[in-house]
Amino acid sequence: MAAQPAEEPVGAGELGRYVAERLHLDEPVYQQYGRFLKQLVWEQSLGQSFANRQDVNDIVKTHFPTSVELGLYAVARIYWTSFAEVFAPHEDALRTILLAAGICTGLVGALMALRQTNVKRLLAFATIAHIGLFLMGIALLSPDALGGVGIWLLADGLARGALFMVVGILAHEGGSVDDDDLRGRGRKLPVAGLIFGVAALALATLPPFGTFLGKALVEEAAVKAGHGWVPAVFLVVSGLAAGAILKSAAVIFLGWGPAREAEGREDGEEEEPEAGEEGGE
After folding, report:
1. Average predicted confidence (pLDDT) for the chain
2. Is the pLDDT of residue 127 over 60?
């Protein structure tokens, strides 16, 4: 077989031309940019990722909540040096607004997590639920509460990192991140199942995890500030979010629960035998 001429650019073969045509790499740069803008504005799509072959929108949705957590904490860290004097006359109103936003965010995120079958989206909504809890801690505008949020945020991030690691293993081994597609297939991965379950318990803010310590510090600051109802909200939101994760773990690693009906068949509907199939010939 003759060698490829040295002057022929790499990838200029049939496969290279196919990839260039499929990805529009053979078009001028301004046309490529215009195509990207059209896709972004009219289709609200960022395309596919080359690294993991997933929709970029889904990747952004998955990791965006974590960026919000870090952003909230960063702003809270500079509150007393940059904003305390400005907001001092309106501190009570600011606290009320942030507490209300935190409650709504936490409850909506937890309830949406319960409805998910895609494990990545489930973890994303669980993260949103915890953002609401962190926002409530920041809303107390107390150094003690902020210290508790910092500990809670660090421990929460470690636990969630373990969960996403296991999801990556499941996607590699099972080819899906839907708990119904993975039903019972996690039995072959006992260590991954153990890590998933322990990380879910950590997100439930149970002792002896760091999430429990951080939440306890925030709750103590809330009670001192006269907001004794805050621990109840923490219990409900963290319990719902962790329950959604544990439910998914039970389906994947233990095979619990009934499988969803096949698409196109209504509940309780069975195929009717055709005439002439009943009885003998």
Report:
1. 81
2. yes
Q: Is the dihedral of CA 23, 175, 183, 57 positive or negative?
A: negative
pLDDT (tens digit, 9 = 90+) per residue, 58-116? 766 666 666 777 777 787 778 878 887 888 888 899 999 999 999 999 999 999 999 99
SS3 string, 243-257, reads HHHHHHHHHHHHCCC
Which range scores top for mean pLDDT: 70-84, 113-127, 267-281?
Answer: 113-127
Residue-wise pLDDT for 131-150, tens only, equals 999 999 999 998 899 999 99
SS3 225: coil
Selection from 6, 136, 38, 245 nearest residue 46 by Cα? 38
DSSP-assigned letter for residue 192 = H
Reduced to 3 states, what is the DSSP secondary structure of residue 178?
A: strand
Cβ contacts of 130 within 8 Å, gap of 6 or more: 69, 106, 109, 156, 203, 237, 238, 241
- At position 265, the amino acid (one-letter code) is R
Q: Kindly give, in sequence order, each residue whose CB lies less than 8 Å from that of residue 113, ignoring residues fewer than 6 positions away.
A: 122, 125, 126, 129, 240, 241, 244, 245
CA dihedral 231, 237, 241, 242 (to 10 degrees): 20
Inter-residue contact 135 to 98 (CB < 8 Å): yes
Task: Read off the tokens for 212.
Answer: 């429990």
Which two tokens mark 116? 């998910």
Q: Which residue has the tokens 């965010």?
A: 105
- Inter-residue contact 148 to 86 (CB < 8 Å): no
Residue 279: predicted pLDDT: 44
Give me the helices (H) in 140-207, please: 143-174, 190-203
Would you state the pLDDT for residue 41? Answer: 74
Q: In terms of residues, how long is the chain?
A: 281
